[in-house]
Amino acid sequence: ANADNGGPTIFDKIISKEIPSTIVYEDERVLAFRDINPQAPVHVLVIPKFRDGLTQLSKAETRHSEILGHLFYAAKIVAEKEGILDGFRVVINNGPAACQSVYHLHLHVLGGRQMKWPPG
Ligand code: 5GP
């Protein structure tokens, strides 16, 4: 399993487009692209373009408030674009106990099927 070492991740190469991805939404602050291993018909990751120490949500500081808000707003834009505004899930896996595998903060936007709760 990966650890949070604060260093570059595969998402840096996705942001720089060195590694191709299917982009759903992009602006100057965030990038949203399809997960390579989708867990639902719609599975999009929303990430900050500038990580600024946000390897995981538990590292959030006051200075991150604005980007955190914008990430959630971008998740809504993604749900709208994907036609799942009536029902979707936004997930953040934080740390090893939550199965986080990439240490660059990301929101999972999931939908297009009936979601179960609790997720397990
Ligand atoms: P985590 O487990 O850290 O919450 O989620 C990381 C997600 O990134 C996983 O769902 C995984 O499928 C996705 N992922 C990992 N590498 C790549 C990649 O190279 N391209 C894309 N599009 N998704 C990736």
Automatic annotation (TrEMBL):
Superkingdom assignment: Eukaryota
Chain positions of motif Histidine triad motif: 104-108
Transmembrane segments: none
Domain HIT: 10-120
Protein name as annotated: HIT domain-containing protein
Single Gene Ontology MF annotation: adenylylsulfatase activity
Active-site residues annotated for this sequence: H106 (tele-amp-histidine intermediate)
Organism: Nepenthes gracilis (Slender pitcher plant)
